[in-house]
Write a structure and sequence with these properties.
It is built from 5 helices and no strands. The chain has about 100 residues and is an all-alpha fold. α3 packs across α4.
């Protein structure tokens, strides 16, 4: 079967991003968006305010805002780990 017969034309979106040289950047932003969303959802479920979260993490409110900002990708594993601990979750990092 040709690509047309399979219902696909051209390359994948990942291939396009790689050709444009932005694949890694897009992946990083996507991962950060998911993590920020998961933390915020867990905070809502647990009825934890941002002020309470920051206090439990032993950090500032502005640091927490950076963690929850999907566009800010410069977050350390230590910060993620502290946030996960407060909301009763674990961090799993793997190379694939």
């Amino acid at each position: 079967m040709t690509k047309i017969e399979k219902g696909r034309l051209g390359s994948s979106f990942d291939d396009f991003l790689k050709e444009e040289g932005i694949y890694e950047e897009v992946q990083t932003v996507a991962i950060k968006r998911v993590i920020a969303w998961q933390i915020e959802e867990a905070m809502k479920t647990s009825h934890i305010t941002k002020a309470q979260m920051a206090r439990h993490m032993k950090t500032s409110r502005s640091q927490l805002d950076r963690l929850l900002n999907p566009e800010h990708s410069g977050v350390t594993l230590e910060t993620l780990s502290r946030a996960a601990q407060v909301i009763g979750r674990n961090i799993r990092v793997e190379l694939i």
